[in-house]
Automatic annotation (TrEMBL):
GO terms for biological process: chorismate metabolic process; L-phenylalanine biosynthetic process. SUPFAM superfamilies: ACT-like, Chorismate mutase II, Periplasmic binding protein-like II. It is found in: Cytoplasm. GO terms for cellular component: cytoplasm. It comes from the Bacteria. This is Bifunctional chorismate mutase/prephenate dehydratase. Residues 90-266 form the Prephenate dehydratase domain. SMART domains: CM_2 (SM00830). Residues 1-90 form the Chorismate mutase domain. Residues 278-355 form the ACT domain.
Amino acid sequence: MTLEALRKEIDRIDDQLLDLYNERLKIVEEVGRLKNSTGAPIYRPEREREILERLKRRNRERGGLLSDEAIEALFLELFAVARNYELPERVAFLGPEASFTHQAAEKKFGATSAYLPIHTIKGVFREVAEGKAKFGVVPIENSFNGIVSDTINCLSDYDLKIVAEVLIEIHHVLATKAEDVKQIKRIYSKDIAFGQCNQFLEDVGLDLVEQIPVESTAKAAQMAAKDPEAAAICSEVAARLYHLPILFKNIEDEGNNRTRFFIVSDFENRPSGRDKTTILVRLPHRPGALVDFLNDFKEAQIGLTKIKSHIVGGVSIFFIEFDGHKEDEKIRKIFEKHEESIKFLGSYVKEADDV
Ligand SMILES: O=C(O)C(=O)C[C@]1(C(=O)O)C=C[C@@H](O)C=C1
């Protein structure tokens, strides 16, 4: 046989192997579903060993060419692929546990998904980019504090897509093990949360009590749970997590404190019929560049829902959102025309107009 003919033979067998690997993975998927519904462990080394020994025996009986080591190497790799496949899709979020981002993640993925608290926004992006988590949940803007720069920087740097948005109403509670407000000697919270509850603290006579800022409201609940003379200003979930009784709910001075979150992943959504699209735009430095760009949206009758300027690495860019999906004819045309300037960040089901 010629080399070409031999290679054709190899290609034919590789095709069969590929189909068989996929067929195997289909069964593994079923096993994974079964295990995830009962909480059984994914990794079963004894079962892997049993398979290897059986295959080596069979290989020997049939006078196969593969060595024992080769069988081990090939099949151990296959088991690793299977285990990764069986793992439920992990969700990385800006932690710690019981943070408002955790709440947003649970709103989207339910209470039993595999969650991974990560301490920085960049860390969340990295987990998803490296395939350690399928989804990442990060805040993008808050009605009092505005846009979250770290999230925009990461959207600019990483090649992930926004696949959904979530809106959460931010409510604070005062939680404590103290029986009476008068017993409270110190309050733990995040610095901005103290500021959001000034009026309440004055009303209940806690305005002169020592305020101890910590890195998150979840941490505040954890600290207060260890000290019967302390209270925490935190979320309801954080109080529950640390078994801290809630004394007052909704203690923020102004209502309507909302935070919007993005869910990022490694794929793009298909159109749903009620989509919103987010892009970053870097325009040339010439008079009227922004006006000309926006005019194309006006002419195509595309409703802009947000435009914010932002500095990334010393360069001014625009964060822009509008109604519709990337695949809509009129949006495709604009993307073609401004290909050089636009970084597409995602088209996803519209949940909210604004925070
Ligand atoms: O049999 C199982 O329990 C599986 O999950 C399947 C499988 C395999 O690929 O054969 C994968 C992972 C386990 O460690 C053992 C075996």
